[in-house]
C-alpha cells in the first residue's frame, strides 16, 4: 500500500525537487529569469492544452485570457499598492486567474457553441477584437507602452518583498507546481475523461447523456482560468503588461509550444514551453532571424513528428524499456551526419539571406557565420551552404529507409512482446 | 403493458420530400420490436427522430409517457433512451474500458464532476468491468477501440449503448457486415444484454429479426404497412409483396 502511494507520488516529488534545486544548478541572474519565464509559459502552455490536447479545440486566441488576466492583475496590483492593502504578491495570480475565468466564461458562451473550424475562427476573431481594442481603450491597456507596476511595494509575505529574482523564481515555481498538479488532476476526473471523449467523437458523447457544448464550455473556462494565472505571474515577473501579450503572436507562441512539445501527452506542453522559452531567449541573442527558426521548427514537427517531442520520447522510451533501443543506434548514427549537414546548410542560407537582404544596407555584406568571416554577397558561402543542404537532403533520403527498417524490426518485437 | 415508446402521426420532410408520412406506433415496455423495410423506407430517419438527431416536422414522440420530440439527443438519453448506430460510432482513441466507463458516467450521477477522481469511482469501474465481460471484451480491456476487429467494435457499440442502463434500447442494424458466426454471437449478445428492457431494432437480416422480435413493424415509404407478431408478418401478403418477396424470403 505504502509503496503504491510512493510510486504514485514519486513523479511529483521529483518535480518538486527539480523546482527546488534548479536555482542551485543554474544560479546566474539570467538563468533565474529564464526559469521564471519557463514556469509562466509552462502554465500557459498546459492551459492551452486543456483545449487542444484534452478537448480537441484549436484556439487561435488563447493569449486573450493570458493578457486580460495580466492586465486585471496589474491594475489590481497598482490599486492594492495605492490603497496600501495587506495583500502580498503570492495571492495576486489568483486575481489573474479569476479575471481569465470571467472573460473565458463570457467569450466561451459564444465560441464553444461549435467545435472544429467554427471554434477556431471565432477564437481568431475574438483574439483580434480584444487585441485591436487595446489600442482604443488606452486607459486600461496603456497603449503601446503598456502598464507598469512595482512588486516590491506590495505588502511583504513572511518578510519577503520579492525584489530579488530568486524570490520571484520560487513564487513562480510554487504556482507552476500547484497548477501542473491541478491540471493533471483535472484530466483524471469524470469531466476530464469526457473532454477526451468529446474530442474523439462529439456525436457519440451526446448520445451517452453529455452536452458537448457544456463540456467544451467548462473546458474553456478552466483553460482561461489557468491562462489568467499565468498572465498574473507574468506581471509579477516582468512588472509590465502590454498589448503584445494578448495578441496573435502570443497566441501563436502558445500553440507552437503545445504542438512542438506534444499535445497528445499531458507533459508535452511542459517540454514545449521549456524548449521554446530557451530558444526564444538564447536564439534572440544569437540572431535577429530567430522567429524564422520557430516557424521552421513548427513546420518540421508538423511534418515529421506530429506527436511532438513528447511523442518522439515516448516512442523511444517504450523501445528503451524493452531493451530494444540499441537496434536503432546504427541507423541513427548513419543518418546523424546527414541531418547535421542539412541543418548547418539551412541555417547558413537563412543567416546569409537575412544578412544580405536585411542588414547589408546598414552594415555591409561582411558577416561572421559559425565563427568564420564571410561575405554574404560572394558566391562561396552560398555554394558551401547549398552543398551542405543538398548533401544533407540527398544522404538523408538515401539513408532514411535504414531508419525505417530498424524501426520496423523494433516495432515488430515490441508488438510481439505486448501480445505475449 | 404500458407503452415505453409511442409515436403519433409522425411526419418528417426534407424540403418537399416526405420521408416519414403520418407514422404511428406503440412499443410496450419490455417488448422486443423490430422495424423492417426496404432501403429508403425511412428506417434510419425514424431512428434519428426518436433519438433526437433529427427534429420531427410534426407529430408526437413519447418516452414512458413524456414528450421527447425535438429534444436534444443528450436530453433524450438522460430520460432513458439509448441507441446504437448503423456505422460503428465509438470513441476510437479511448480504450475499451474507457469507452464503457465514459458511457456509464452520466447515468451513475457523475455528470460533469471535476472534483472527484475517476479511478476512485467504484460504481463506474464495476459497471464497465461487468459490461466488458458481458460483451466478451475483457481480454481487450486496454486496447484502443479504433484497433479492434469489426465484430469487436460492433460488440463495443452495443456495450456503449447499454452502459447507461437505459430502459429503451435502439439498435440500428447491429449485425450489418457480419458473417454467420459473428451474427449468431451478436444475436446471443443482444438477447442477453437487453433482457428486461425495451428493444427497438432496425435489421435487414430476417433470420435475426424473426429470431429476436416479439413484434415486427414493416415500414414502406415512411408509413407502417403492417405491425404484428413474426408469424403473422411472415404470412402477410402485403408485406411479402412490398418487402419480403423482394428480399427473397
State the distance separating the first and last CA atoms of chain B: 32 Å
Overall geometry of chain B comes to globular
- Strand order within the widest sheet of chain A? 1-2
SSE string of chain B: EEEHEEHEHHHEHEHEEHH
**Major β-sheet strand ordering of chain B:** 6-7-8-3-9-10
What is the secondary structure topology, with strand pairs?
The complex is a heterodimer of chains A (420) and B (249).
Chain A: H1 2-25, H2 29-55, H3 63-83, H4 92-111, H5 116-133, H6 138-141, E1 147-148, H7 165-187, H8 190-200, H9 202-206, H10 212-238, E2 240-241, H11 248-261, H12 268-286, H13 290-304, H14 308-321, H15 329-363, E3 366-369, E4 372-375, H16 379-419
Antiparallel strand pairs in A: 1-2, 3-4
Chain B: E1 3-14, E2 17-28, E3 32-36, H1 43-51, E4 58-63, E5 66-67, H2 73-78, E6 81-83, H3 96-105, H4 122-134, H5 150-162, E7 168-172, H6 180-193, E8 198-202, H7 206-212, E9 215-220, E10 223-228, H8 230-235, H9 237-247
Parallel strand pairs in B: 3-8, 3-9, 6-7, 7-8
Antiparallel strand pairs in B: 1-2, 1-4, 4-5, 9-10
Helix pairs in contact in B: 3-4, 3-5, 5-6
Structure description:
The complex is a heterodimer of chains A (420) and B (249). Chain A is mainly α. Chain A is 76% helix and 3% strand. Chain A is built from 16 helices and 4 strands. In chain A, strand 3 and strand 4 form a beta hairpin. The longest helix of chain A is centred in the last third of the chain and has 41 residues. Chain A is globular. Chain A starts with a helix and ends with a helix. The mean pLDDT of chain A is 93. In chain B, a hairpin with a 2-residue loop joins strand 4 and strand 5. Chain B is 36% helix and 25% strand. Chain B is built from 9 helices and 10 strands. In chain B, the strands form 2 sheets. A 6-stranded mixed β-sheet of chain B has the order 6-7-8-3-9-10, with helices on both faces. The mean pLDDT of chain B is 93. Chains A and B meet through helix 8, helix 9 and helix 10 of A and helix 2 and helix 3 of B.
